Amino acid sequence: MLGNLYRNETLVQMETYETEPAKVEELVSQVRSKWALLREKGHAGDYPVEVLRSARNGGSVVKVVEVFRWRSVQDKVNASTDADYRALTDRISALTVNKTIEEYTQAVRGFNTNFPGIGGVELLKGVCSCLLTVDGIVENYQMSVKNGVVLMHRSPQMDLDGDGKNEMYLKILMHGGEIIQAGLGPIRVEQNFNVPNDGIVKSNGGENDFPGTAIWRVGWRIKTAMGPVLTDPDTPLIFGPAKVEHYPPVGTHFHSPTGPVALIHEETGNRVGTLTPGELTAFDIVVTKDDEIYADVLNTPPSDIFEILEEWNQRTRGGEDVEPVLASD
């Protein structure tokens, strides 16, 4: 059962307008302007807006449907008293013969029965935490990286290791985020492209693919005022294993059992501190797209990913022994 099924409680708004065919282009233009105005004033959420229009089909009216998300309940209230917004909605009303407004709560997209039969790419928003020590500057700083995004490719449903249980290999194409720390200034955490950044979801067996067990391994390059530093390239940062009930794994907390790893100054090669990875969590789906062709380079996992999953499953009893590392909000 998907534990966190709903998001954006009553913030998704759908408005349906009916207009005469001669006015439909102007109506679409005004609806687009409405959303742009809400974004400029900070009232509309950062989700892509949908503006749809029906075909005429010989009828006397054409429908235009607008779907967007308010940033908050208070923003919805504030917009209703905004003079520019009210003027724009008046212009829209003058172009319509009928209008309905409905509010919805958004359900998380994804798969929760079987792994998808076709590969694809997901762009997710997320957050990761760690304890950061830079010698002489900061010690065990509880760092929580903001503006986090991850772009990753999922392989289609396959039994990759021939054991009768399906898997999805997950290749991370890009991930990163930022934070500002008093001693180090602006910090950019991003992917070290010189080491593996990937993961796997393996079915636990049974009638369906879910639930499964997932694990990630990554390496980081951290841009700081003292220059870029790397997490030890010979020690991957492991997140998981964790039980997953759905994919993309929005809301699943991947705690790290890795422990402290050395931080290496990229330019000098000197050890300058340690980083203890804490938790990795995706909290939203920005976009998901299925593949158009099957590409071996994206869908073929390295053999050691199965070894990593098995090793950490045994060391942590399937993730039960992983203690979370706390980080600041």
From TrEMBL:
What name goes with this protein? Answer: Uncharacterized protein
